Structure formats: C-alpha cells, structure tokens
From TrEMBL:
<dbReference type="InterPro" id="IPR048650">
    <property type="entry name" value="ISOA1-3-like_C"/>
</dbReference>
<dbReference type="InterPro" id="IPR013783">
    <property type="entry name" value="Ig-like_fold"/>
</dbReference>
<dbReference type="Pfam" id="PF00128">
    <property type="entry name" value="Alpha-amylase"/>
</dbReference>
<dbReference type="Pfam" id="PF21156">
    <property type="entry name" value="ISOA1-3_C"/>
</dbReference>
<keyword id="KW-0326">Glycosidase</keyword>
<dbReference type="InterPro" id="IPR006047">
    <property type="entry name" value="GH13_cat_dom"/>
</dbReference>
<keyword id="KW-0378">Hydrolase</keyword>
<feature type="domain" description="Glycosyl hydrolase family 13 catalytic">
    <location>
        <begin position="135"/>
        <end position="577"/>
    </location>
</feature>
<dbReference type="InterPro" id="IPR011837">
    <property type="entry name" value="Glycogen_debranch_GlgX"/>
</dbReference>
<dbReference type="InterPro" id="IPR004193">
    <property type="entry name" value="Glyco_hydro_13_N"/>
</dbReference>
<dbReference type="InterPro" id="IPR013780">
    <property type="entry name" value="Glyco_hydro_b"/>
</dbReference>
<dbReference type="Pfam" id="PF02922">
    <property type="entry name" value="CBM_48"/>
</dbReference>
<dbReference type="InterPro" id="IPR017853">
    <property type="entry name" value="GH"/>
</dbReference>
<protein>
    <submittedName>
        <fullName>Glycogen operon protein GlgX</fullName>
        <ecNumber>3.2.1.-</ecNumber>
    </submittedName>
</protein>
<comment type="similarity">
    <text>Belongs to the glycosyl hydrolase 13 family.</text>
</comment>
<keyword id="KW-0809">Transit peptide</keyword>
<dbReference type="GO" id="GO:0016798">
    <property type="term" value="F:hydrolase activity, acting on glycosyl bonds"/>
</dbReference>
C-alpha cells in the first residue's frame, strides 16, 4: 500500500505507552521532527542515559525512557519520541557513570539534568517568584517554536566605528517606578524607551546577561540592610541558549523567546543594534560544593578545567572555569553564538573575562587559541561584532595583546584608567591622553582604532557621577564588610565624600562629568557609556552592586529633570560625534598631510599652538583634526579642535590658524553654566578672538573650524 510517511519516522520501540526509535545524532538538543521530537545528547564517560519526560509544571515525570545501547553512536545518545505535546513538555536526563571526583567524574543518576542545548528553561518563569525548594528538577528543559515573523528584519551591520554603545541591565533600566512603563523590568518595557535611546543618539545597546540564570543563587538576608541579596547581574549561567523567562512579561506563559525577538526587531527598525554580554568562562554550578544542574552531571571532565586531583580551576573567580578549548565545548560555544546570530538576529557579542577563552585545559595561555580563531573565521558570525573583556580573575591581562585575527575588539581598560587619572588631575598622563584620543595606536597599531572599545565607566565599578563624588568605595550594603569590589577606582570626590549641598562642588562634579563625556566622544575608537550616566545616576559609592535588586541598580528616571544639564549635554556630544566623520576613522592617523590640505590629519598642541607639552608636570593638551582627512580623505568634514585642561586654573590656549575663509566656532565649553556649555550643531557662534581662547580650570573646549 502506498504511503507518504517516511520509514525513518515510524516507531520501532514502545515503553510505558511511549513510542520511539533511534534518533539523529545532530543537531544536539531537542528538535522537532515529523510526528515527534529528536533528542540528542553527548557524554564521553557515561555508561547509561535515560530521557525523563514531564508535563509542564508537574512534580513527577510521566515517563522515563532508557536509551537502548544501539541508540548510542560514539559518545552521543539519540532518540526520536513520537506523539508528544510539544507545548506542554519538559524534559531532562539521568546520566549513569562513575562518581570518582579524583578522576574528574561526578555522575549521579539520582539527579535529573538539564539539557545544555535546551532553547528554553522552565522553573524560574517570573522574577523572584519563590521556587519550590523541594522540586526534584528545578531547571527544566523546554522546546520552543520557530514560528516568529521577523518580516524583513536582519542584523544591521553598522560599521563598528560608527557605533555609540549603551551598556544596559535589562531589568535595572526600567524597574524603577519613575520609568512609567508597563511591565517594568522586562524585554517588553525596553520598547517603550526606544524613542529615548534615539534622542540620546544611541545606535547599539549592549545587554548584560539575558540568558537563563537563577536570581535566587546565593540569595540571603543582608545583615546590614535586612533586605534580600540576590544574583542581580546574572553572570552565572544556567543555560547559554535560553533567554531569561524572568525578564519577560510573558515568561509565565513561556513566551520569552517571542518577546525578546520582538524587542530586537523593534530596535532594528529604529536603527539600534543589539549586542549581548556572554559569559562562556564559567557556569552556575560553582565548585565541588555547588549544585549539579547540567554540565557537571553530563560530562564534568569535558566541560570544566580540572586540576590533576579533580578540583576546579577558578580563573573566573566564581568557583569553576569552562574548558572552552576542548573541541566539544568549543563546538557548543560556536553553536550557541550561531543560534543567537541566526535565530535572534543579534548583531554582536561582548565576552566576559574573555582571556579565559584563550587558556588550555590546564590554564596556560595559548598562542593560537582554537576557540578565538574559530569565532573570528566562522561564516555565520562573519558580520557580528566580537568584543573581548581582555582579562580574567586568574591574573591574565591581555589588553592590546588579545588574539584578534583581524576581528576582535577589546574593552580598553587602559583608556578607562588613563582618562580617569587625567581628569583627577594626576601628573604624567598627557601621553596616555594623546594615545586615548587616537584610539591607542601603541596598543592597536596593526588593528586600527576600532579595536579599542573606549569607556570610562561600566556596570563594574563607579558610575560616572560616583567617579567624582567618592574617593573610596562604599560597599557595606553588600554584606561583605566592604571587602569586595576594586580599590583602584582613580576617582576624586571634588572635596566632599558623597552627597553635598555645596553648590560649587556640585557644579564641579557636573563639569567633570561633561569633561569625561567630551573626551570619550572625541576619541577615535568606539565609545561606550553606562546606562544612566547621561543623567547622573548614583550607586551611593558602591562599586560592586552585583547583588542588589533595588535603587542601587535601578535607573532613576527622575534624574532627567534634576540633572537636565547632564542629559542635554550628553545628547549634544553624542550627536556631535555622529555628525562629524573625522571623529570616526577605521585607520590610525598618519600625522602628515596626505591629501594636500596644508595640514596633517592630526596635530597636537599645548597652550602654544603646534607646541604640545608632554612633560611629567603637564596637565594640558590640545589637538586638531583636519576635516579634509576624514575617513582617510574620502569625505570632507569640518576641522575639529579640542582643548583639554586638567589644571585647576584657567589658561589661554593659542589657536592654530585656519585657511583663508574659515574660522573657529564654539561647540562645547564645559566651564560655562547650563545653557551656555554647548551650541546646536551647525549653529555654533563664531569666536571674536580667532587667535586664542581662555580654557577654564578643569575644563574642555571643542571648536569647529568652518
């Protein structure tokens, strides 16, 4: 009798009323096939594997099916199970094998394990909803439907030199009551703030971890405040493929995938790229005292770096370290990033503690790390931005030396530290500032300025406001006796520790914030700001707010009115950068005139034109960018002159002469009060004195020659 049903989709086995047959080894994970679901999982040392099936939310499984030995190919167990309810299904695995920690094996068939390749995880469906601590399977693997209508959306592929990156905590951005959004703290809520991001001039949001983690991990009562300490930042991964249900207004309905995709699509419609902060250096399982959730129980020796005695190397500072250059783990990372790029249209990735990704299984740095090379040359990731946090907790610091393969950019910690010290008024920093302005050619000579992601503040450390309000960290609210968090903040409180009613000090703090933003946005490279810095958010001097789901991490939107001068200035300097291509070069300056304009592409000056002072005691630097050399001479722009003065008194700066018919116009003067500190782009007033300009103490001036 004729039939249209393929023979390989007939069941061959039946157990407990469940029909199944041998499956396909690839892809790993759970995949929908005609009439059923294909399950595939790898383990190099397991001697037995059992598939465990649950109805969604039920305490006990409705079936457990042991993989017949003939269903194993190499070290991969695969099975097609028929006639399952995709929407109501949760699944996991039991792995049997040796429990010999000294040999790296920690199998325990009594534990139900989550699938590393699961595309959604149940069990933490609403943020901080109290879980059932007696649940035999707390992090439940689920399937997702691939039926989202992307319409005509695709990754934007904005040239990296044109990006203005905005680092954002998904929940913290809209959770504060002042945000006035529906469903605060969710993917959906961010859509209500897209108009704000465009007004600010942002064209790339970098989201702190949004894949599944457990906010209840290491939760406890704060002995100082009495409040609850939680895992707020999310740098502790439960599953790399699954968006966090607790970040979705629809998470309790299992619709977090569609909600996140809708956000990405809406951001793209408005010209804003999406970059994800990914954490492939460790997982939520911790060290030998931690919980077995997935990787440890499936194949501990493959997934983690282990000492010869079977303990966990801890280059991440969190208890364990993923063995990323093992081929199996490397393939998982590649599969994961390909999935986010292809199925979520993600534009780029920032890799937390990325130096770990270049270590071998014993922790030694590799000269040619296979994972980093694979990511750089992967055809699916070819247009994605790849950004490394080029250090780790084990002491490996690779800023300027991270293996790049012509693709990788770096969070430039040297930029951050140099600019902070210069603004503070330290001596001997003029050379570093000259490097910072140019995109650090000493570090990135062969890679170009776009290898440098420039930032002065980020989630980790002081906010920009706190940088000028505190000399010391104040982390008592973390319940660790102020012992956590970095001590090298290079901050200056302007005379008073913390909040003050002193008008002069508050004016100075605002001026310093404007100085910082000015330097950031006139520097070659790629600028990144921390969400809320544009309106003066404070964390009360806490430089390590990883554990706070409260006002320390929530953006207070009331500051837009209180600090309107900061917001207006931020808007101006962001749009000023975007209006002037001479500030956004892909190649380093040549310090010569190669287009015949009569001026070099960049020239440095001091209080005297053409005479920069790089001496140890100098706190002054000016530079001029010739607009005829914009984008390597392919575009004509205005000439930009910037005077930086970190000395405490005002100084006259002699201005370089411009060609006949052109004159200097004032764009920015941070020494002036709000309303006079910048002028609208294209309407900058002409200077009466074209020969010199008085730059105030601790001030920045930006001129446009046109």
């Amino acid at each position: 009798m004729a039939t249209d049903i393929r023979i390989d989709y007939y069941p061959t086995h039946e157990q407990q009323g469940i029909k199944f047959r041998r499956g396909h080894v690839l892809p790993f994970g759970a995949t929908m096939v005609p009439n059923g679901i294909n399950f595939s999982i790898y383990s190099s040392e397991a001697i037995d594997c059992t598939l465990v099936l649950f109805e969604r939310g039920e305490a006990e499984p409705f079936a457990e099916i042991r993989f017949p030995e003939e269903f194993r190919t190499g070290n991969v167990y695969s099975m097609i199970v028929f006639e399952l309810d995709y929407e109501r299904l949760e699944y996991g695995y039991r792995m049997d094998g040796p429990f010999k920690p000294e040999e790296g094996h920690r199998f325990d068939k009594s534990i139900i394990l989550s699938d590393p390749y699961a595309k959604a995880i149940g069990g933490r469906d609403s943020w901080l909803a109290k879980p059932n601590w007696d649940n035999i399977y707390p992090y439940r693997s689920r399937l997702v439907f691939e039926d989202f209508d992307w319409e005509n959306d695709h990754p934007l592929e904005t040239p990296i030199e044109d990006l203005v990156i905005y680092e954002m905590h998904l929940r913290g951005f809209t959770q504060h009551p002042s945000s006035n959004v529906k469903n605060p703290g969710t993917f959906a809520a961010i859509r209500s703030k897209i108009a704000y991001l465009k007004e600010l001039g942002i064209n790339c949001v970098e989201l702190m971890p949004i894949y599944e983690f457990d906010e209840w991990e290491n939760s406890k009562e704060n002995p100082v405040t009495g409040g609850l300490i939680v895992n707020f930042w999310g740098y502790s991964t439960v599953n790399f493929f699954s968006p966090k249900a607790g970040y979705a207004a629809t998470g309790k309905f299992g619709m977090q995938v569609d909600e996140l995709k809708t956000l990405v699509k809406e951001l793209h419609k408005n010209g804003i790229e999406v970059m994800l902060d990914v954490v492939f250096n460790h997982t939520a399982e911790g060290d030998h005292r931690g919980h077995t959730i997935s990787f440890r129980g499936i194949d501990n020796k493959t997934y983690y770096m282990l000492t010869p005695e079977g303990y966990y190397f801890n280059f991440s500072g969190t208890g364990n370290t993923l063995n990323c250059n093992n081929p199996v783990v490397r393939n998982m990372v590649l599969d994961c990033l390909r999935y986010w790029a292809a199925d979520y249209h993600i534009d780029g990735f920032r890799f937390d503690l990325a130096a770990i990704l270049g270590r071998d299984q014993n922790g030694a740095p590799l000269s040619n790390p296979p994972l980093l090379e694979s990511l750089a040359y992967d055809p699916i990731l070819a247009k994605c931005k790849l950004v490394a946090e080029a250090w780790d907790a084990g002491g490996l610091y690779q800023v300027g030396s991270f293996p790049a393969y012509g693709r990788w950019a770096e969070w430039n910690g040297k930029y951050r530290d140099g600019v902070r010290k210069f603004l503070k008024g330290d001596e001997g920093l003029v050379g570093d500032i000259a490097q910072s302005i140019q995109g650090w050619p000493d570090l990135y000579y062969y890679r170009g300025p776009t290898a440098s992601i420039n930032f002065i503040s980020c989630h980790d450390g002081f906010t920009l406001y706190d940088l000028f309000a505190y000399n010391e960290k104040h982390n008592e609210a973390n319940g660790e006796n102020n012992n956590d968090g970095g001590n090298d903040n290079h901050s200056w409180n302007c005379g008073v520790e913390g909040e003050t009613d002193d008008v002069f000090i508050n004016q100075l703090r605002h001026k310093q914030i404007k100085n910082a933003l000015s330097i950031l946005f006139v520097s070659q490279g790629v600028p990144m700001i921390l969400s809320g810095d544009e309106m003066g958010v404070t964390k009360n001097g806490n430089n390590n707010t990883y554990c706070h789901d409260n006002e320390l991490n929530w953006v207070d939107w009331g500051l837009l009115e209180k600090n309107s001068d900061l917001f207006n200035f931020s808007k101006h300097i962001t749009h000023f950068r975007r209006a002037h291509p001479v500030l956004r070069s892909r190649t380093h300056f040549q310090h010569r005139d190669y287009v015949g304009s009569g001026y070099p592409d960049i020239s440095f000056h001091g209080t005297q034109a053409w005479q920069p002072d790089f001496s140890e005691s100098s706190r002054c630097l000016a530079f001029m960018l010739d607009g005829a050399h914009a984008k390597g001479g392919t575009i004509v722009d205005d000439t930009i002159y910037v005077a930086l003065n970190s000395y405490w008194d005002a100084l006259y700066y002699e201005l370089p002469a411009l060609p006949n018919g052109r004159s200097w116009h004032l764009s920015v003067n941070t020494d002036m009060p709000a309303g006079q500190d910048f002028f609208e782009i294209g309407k900058e007033p002409r200077l009466d004195d074209q020969g010199r300009f008085l730059v105030g103490g601790r001030a920045t001036v930006v001129l446009v020659g046109k």
